[in-house]
From TrEMBL:
Domain Nucleotidyl transferase as annotated: residue spans: 7-270
Family matches, as CDD domains: ADP_Glucose_PP (cd02508), LbH_G1P_AT_C (cd04651)
Cited NCBIfam families: glgC (TIGR02091), PRK02862.1 (NF002772)
EC number: 2.7.7.27
A Pfam family reported for this protein in Swiss-Prot or TrEMBL: NTP_transferase
Any one Gene Ontology molecular-function term assigned to this protein's record: glucose-1-phosphate adenylyltransferase activity
Identification of the protein by name: Glucose-1-phosphate adenylyltransferase
Organism the protein comes from: Chryseobacterium rhizosphaerae
Amino acid sequence: MNRNVISIVLGGGRGTRLFPLTYTRSKPAVPIAGKYRLVDIPISNCLNSGLNKILVLTQFNSASLNSHIKNSFHFDIFSKGFVDILAAEQNVENESWYQGTADAVRQSMKHLEKYDYDYILILSGDQLYQMDFREMLDFHIENGGDLTIATIPVNAKDATGFGILKSDDEGNITSFYEKPEYDMLDGLKSEVSDENKHNGKEFLASMGIYIFTKTILKKMFDEGAGDDFGKDIIPSSIGKYKTLSYQYEGYWTDIGTIESFYEANLDLCQDLPQFNLFSSSPIYTRARMLPPSKINGSYVSKAVFGDGCIIMADKIENSVIGNRTRINKGSTIVNSYVMGADFYQNTTEIVLNDRKGRPNMGIGKYCYIEKAILDKNCYIGDNVKIIGGKHLPDGDYETHSVQDGIVVVKKGAVLPPGTHIG
């Protein structure tokens, strides 16, 4: 079957709900699982599906994302594959930046003219899932779709936070509501599997994954359908174009908030995590050539470690430890994500800091850290205590933020010895 496809990954806007992790980077560039970036997920799904023509649209805080893509995804000279960046630009025809998801694709269409493709796969850069897009493409082609939307069954509680679709028995979408009120849900149930029905998941939520037939998307843009896929393009396509729902039954989560980001990472520590890093479909990322992690005298339970770590902690439990993390003796890390570091500190600097009682990069001696996210390159002094929980009010401070009881220590923050948070 003809699968002449070009994939477009949306690089994300300001990502305010993930602040302060998005203070210096876009959402797709946020580190996840100790060694990856969020953008690695959609790109890897494409490559594992045999789709190797990929464009990433970037705009806000894009330097970190651009650098990661440039250093991560290379194809040999005999391959027609690529992962290229399309940065937002002002030109003589349009002096404004991207005004929404659809506008980002609309403004980029002129750059797609040099490629041969029949279908456009549009993906979000901030979701966690494993999906074979070939099955969705086959469904789109076999059913003569103009637009196919990947959907996932959700319960009534979650439905109010998504774009909810109603479909008929043949998968045709008959109505769409962006984040409907709870009292609107009664008429929005769709046909789902018996298992999902038993679990109360009878509402189909848009996953933000779309397949357009090329000629139809161009026609929609010519008609001026709007700037956003969820708010404008999808509602206007129903009844006018053949708009289909492709139900996905696997694990999928939208990394939209600090709480969802925290929970998705810590779930990786479980015996059987919902997102399987050890499957036959690998997640590709930058090859850093780091040494293996070294652990000395630590009690470790349900933990995930990146590369190049030096660990002398007393205890690490239910936590993700990122690349190049250093944790000194006597420290305890519980229910936390420590992102690690972008580089190793100079040995001379470490010795000098020790003499002067200044924190080194990483976590010092006799610290206790619970329910926290430590962004990269943090300097945590000796005897620091960070204890997150619902007892802490939300707030933003010089070195850290608190959201939903989770303490987020900012990138490069310095916490002097004896600091207490919580």
